[in-house]
Amino acid sequence: MDMTSKLTAAAERLFDRHGYMATGMDRLTQAAGMSSRTLYKHAGSKAQLMARVLGERDRRFMAQIEVGTVDALFAALEDWVRVEGTRGCLFLRSQAETGGDTPEIAGAVAAHKAAFGQRVADIVAADLGREDADLAEQVLVLFEGATHAADYRGAKAVSAARAAAAILTRRART
Amino acid sequence: MDMTSKLTAAAERLFDRHGYMATGMDRLTQAAGMSSRTLYKHAGSKAQLMARVLGERDRRFMAQIEVGTVDALFAALEDWVRVEGTRGCLFLRSQAETGGDTPEIAGAVAAHKAAFGQRVADIVAADLGREDADLAEQVLVLFEGATHAADYRGAKAVSAARAAAAILTRRART
DNA sequence: AGGAATGTAAAACGTACGTTTTACATTGCA
DNA sequence: TGCAATGTAAAACGTACGTTTTACATTCCT
Asked: Does the C-beta of A86 come within 7 A of strand D?
């Protein structure tokens, strides 16, 4: 595994577990197993590193929700939280931690959330056989809610969202 | 307005807008208009200050959602985001920023989320005339989702959640 | 064989952190 | 009148921040 991947993986883990601001570069060099000089050669800066972490995560997440039905979307979320745990949305957390004042991060977050919104709309359209902006918004809210409520309610928040989405989707189909 | 209230109000504003970790004590003394010595006399420590901010916010928020129907719950959220803006849930953000490692904060967050969960269950029970744990979980997820999705989708996320909750509640009533 | 590329360890850069202290001014109550 | 309480400004505490630098070792390609 090359140094850049090792660094990005270590950074994602620490930023996700302890927060972006609370994670110092010394902790990062130690976790990545490299000197600070090498780290900066690959990272550029802390903000750029976070932007790359978010880009990687976006790739991974969007691949996981490459599905054709609303129910499969929530099944994918169940898998995601089982593997990754429940710490809310790293994109929104990063944005909030920095008050939206870090351009590299704000850009990565905006790009992800735009792609995610489009993906949800596509899945709803594929499931219904037609576009439905209202249902898409409801499914997006349920997905976001499950992601964050799982923080303190556990996995049952995701299954509740899945059940609610099934009801709303069936209703929209007829 | 006494110094403690002025301090708490200034702290809530800064912590909410720029994040807990990113807000330094010098910025806080300046915003609260008092010396650091006075600030520490009233705050105790940064973590204790945040805990008091969260306690205040819990009081204000729980008063706002003192309602008897599911629809009124989401109407209250619409009012809340109109007044307070859309920056997600300060409790979950604080918890995530500190990785759950700050006891004062973790305690305040746990207390709030327990009270909030109970309140949602009570509202659902009052609306239906009977308890319904499944519907309560769905309403909670919709509420949490609206809170966070409003960050990037705007107020329409809240109305989508309201509409979805209305459908699920009507269905549960019959 | 030789030299760019890539890595290391460790110290230093200046700044800011959360917190405490020193020295002094203003109040309000007994 | 006097003194405790409460406030101020400003410097200092030690630590940690993100970042750069210095000096040196090790690969890898031609």
From this structure: no
